[in-house]
Known about the structure:
Elements: E1 2-3, H1 7-18, E2 23-29, E3 39-44, H2 48-57, E4 73-76, H3 78-87, H4 91-96
Antiparallel strand pairs: 1-2, 2-3, 3-4
Amino acid sequence: MAFGVKREELNAWKEAVSRGEIAFLTHFWLDPRFPGITTVTKVGCSDLQRLTSWCIEHDLPPQYIHNRSPFPHFDLLGPKQREILQQEELWDQLERFRLG
């Protein structure tokens, strides 16, 4: 279950993904399969080759890309989520979701 994201943020993410940009969207998330995980960052890009390359550059397994048209994305969780948000300098998302 996802919550804590505004419609404007979601629409901006979808637009960026549709343009082939690497786009980040963090939100609160609860899933019993991942106890203790309360947030997820969706890294999306409609250009699957670009998203695959991005995953490889960040030591992430591209086979876990959710190839869901029209918004393919990779879900970042746990320590790797924090690490990449810091690398990408997404301080607002780190602070807002208390990940820093």
